[in-house]
Target: Phosphoketolase family protein
Amino acid sequence: MGGAHARHDDEASGAAAASVPLELVDTWWRAANYLSVGQIYLLRNALLDGPLRADDIKPRLLGHWGTSPGLNLVYAHLNRVIVERGTPTIYVCGPGHGGPAMVANAWLDGTYSELFPKVTLDGEGLERLFRQFSFPGGIPSHAAPETPGSINEGGELGYSLMHAYGAALDNPGLVVACVIGDGEAETGPLNASWRGHTFLNPTTDGAVLPILHLNGFKIANPTLLARIPESELVAFLRGNGYEPTIVSGGFDGEDPMIVHAQLASALDMAYDRFADMRADAAAGAFAKDAPRWPCIVLRTPKGWTGPRVVDGVQVEGTFHSHQVPLAEVRENSEHLAQLDTWLRSYRPDELFGDDGRPSAELDALRPRGELRMSASPHANGGIRRPLDLPGTAEFGIDPAPADGTGGGRGAIGEATRVAGSWLAALMREHPDDVRLFGPDEVLSNRLGAVFDVTERAWAAQLHPLDEHLAREGRVIEALSEHLMQGMLEGYLLTGRHGLLTSYEAFIHIVDSMFNQHAKWLDAARDIDWRGDIPSLNYLLSSHVWRQDHNGFSHQDPGFLNVVVNKKAEVVRVYLPPDANTLLATMRHVFDTHNRVNVVVAGKQPQQQWLDHDEAVAHVEAGVGVWPWAGNEPGFDPADPAASVPDVVIACAGDVPTVEAIAAAQLLRERMPQLTVRVVNVVDLMRLQDPREHPHGLPDLEFDAIFTRSSPLLFAFHGYPTLIHQLTYRRTNHDNLHVRGFNERGTTTTPFDMLHLNDLDRYRLALDVVHRVPGLAERPGVAEIADEWHAARAEARAHAYEHGEDPEWITGWRFDPGTGAGAGFGVADGPAGPLE
Model:
């Protein structure tokens, strides 16, 4: 894709032309409006070869007219600017359900017929264009992956401006024109986006042109910004760092040429300003002063050029034009006649030839090749440059404690700090297509090594006491998860790579954004002209089990439940148990595309389990038995089914892994004849049935690891029901018992958090006692269970008295012991007393 992005200079020089007359812009606008209405209503008779009949109308009228004329108006005018200047521009369509307009203009561009050859640029293709819209087996009513040139899913409002700012990053010379509907402008995410220019560098980034379209109404109410005095609106935009230009007209039958002249002037001023800003920045002005960016306020009637009055009710300029102004066209002859008049008001005989092809005069307003907004490689082209990923070996840490204990395992380390060093190396190798986004938590989540190679991007005022702020920084932080995710999405959808790091509990803020992006990826998989999209990667730290100091509000692992409900081809969830597995996981997720990868890893010091090579192999496998943590004699890694342990303790997540290993050690020390297998899961989707997820283990492999009959305890990072959801089809599911977060949280110590949710090592060991048949009745076992109950109670009492966990918890270290149990013999019953 690199070559495609370098072509615009040649095309621009060839495309530059004399001024395009505004009468031609008006002609394009009329054509796009005609096509928009036709898509909503017409099943046939696309060129109005005869009077409209009821059977020419679709049986179900689905679509949104109200926003379409404004979107078409902006598109026509942007085409004029591109033709005259040769400036690469993409169009971000914010208003919901603006699909008719975006598809209409892509067809007029010629792009639609190139990408969908059956929808030809003639009368036959026009029939197909109209029929497919909001029709079974057709296309959606909003700007979607199927819409050429789109990077913004119009099915949900609020994300257009943040997508635009993400698209502009590292795209010098590109203009991202973003039309913001005034209904959309009421959303929280959009309001957070107004300051997105704080992260733009006029020299190294593109420019964003917000176009706030105030048509006055949403579905059934007036919009907030349309009903405030103009002075307040200007003050609001100026306060957000813009210099607004007001374009207003089209009311009460006003000549549209007045609006055309205003909008053309406003766009020329904006594009001139962008060029001046780049020149000023190159001359050093940007070093001390933040620029003021242009924006446009476009005030036109909702449903402009549509029916003014229907059944005695005002429609144009009111919310009644929002969706389908004439709703009973098949049944009501007056509505049918109004539709006929409406369509003919655009003078289609001037817009299309006898063969249905757009009038040749429109060629002068059609940009060439990839300068067409619907054909822009920035929007359709996929990955700009594959990543050259650093190796991980040099960043790995030795899991062996310095004092020689632990059998070569159990050294203390911080997983995210180690991963941060690798991420810094990645960003050093990719200074213009990898970025890190986060809500003011990069340092908190121990990723500070990235500041050895870059700074935070900052275009606002600088203060002598600032740390890690620079005009050219590549880390972007703002206290809005919406803004961070949206900018990252815009960055990814235009072919670059990145990572969003966040506290685990608050990533829920973007649940809906994740849903929309996952749906986009799923739909885009079936569109062959869309290039591969770099994966959306999350690193969630400061997680549920180590938010003991912040309390209940910060304790929620439920994002995983949201993620796994999406299409299996799209989502992945990784729970690396230590630093080296996190390294291997991070390298893996950056090597994927068309995915959402969720990685959960703690930032606190804890014991380390695998050396570098073991970690790489473990991540590749996704799940594995850790023989050194259990005591299963004769266990063969090549044939796990060759032996059957008395119990399997599985774990997923760093803190649950510590507790599972500690529980296995308790059992090994106090009940050495009991055979325990410890299984760690790093790729959560390995648990799912392979018929449901491509990462799912085949049943024979699953049964070999987890057994077909042994009691199976699972220490899980998140909500226990999720493990049951993933494994309900597995052979041994009836013997599965899961411990995880049970919505019990508070401000307390780390171990007491585990105690509250019955995920601590003593509870796990006690579960083994109660779930291995016959074990609880063996001599001496009741006394051991009482000791473990007492230890739990004593640990809580110590924490509540001293404010910290006791030393036997905080100072616990892994001891491999003898590592060889004798076997309890579950099938035959106990043979003698346990030691």
